[in-house]
């Protein structure tokens, strides 16, 4: 399986559709998977997508069904 290259913070936040500041707060809180390379933070799209799907909250309708 070929892994995608690392992406920077701005494009990673854009990929998730959230502002960079919120994304950085989630990273600082240890909620988002990341790699620290020197002084730089990098992310993999497939890991961010997996993080989003595992943190999904069911709607009230889904919880009742």
Folded structure, characterized:
- The protein has helices at residues 9-16, 20-28, 45-54, 60-64; strands at residues 35-37, 40-42.
- The chain is mainly alpha-helical.
- It has one domain.
- A two-stranded antiparallel sheet has the order 1-2.
- A hairpin with a 2-residue loop joins β1 (35-37) and β2 (40-42).
- The longest helix is centred in the C-terminal third of the chain and has 10 residues, at 45-54.
- The radius of gyration is 14 Å and the shape is elongated.
- The mean pLDDT is 91.
Topology, pairings included?
Layout lengths: L8 H8 L3 H9 L6 E3 L2 E3 L2 H10 L5 H5 L1
Antiparallel strand pairs: 1-2
Strand order of the largest sheet: 1-2
Compute the average pLDDT. Answer: 91
Calculate Rg over CA atoms: 14 Å
**Number of structural units classed as domains:** 1
Number of DSSP E strands: 2
In short:
This protein has 65 residues and is mainly alpha-helical. 49% of the residues lie in helices and 9% in strands.
Q: What features would you highlight for this structure?
A:
mainly alpha, two-stranded antiparallel sheet, 4 helices, 9% strand, elongated
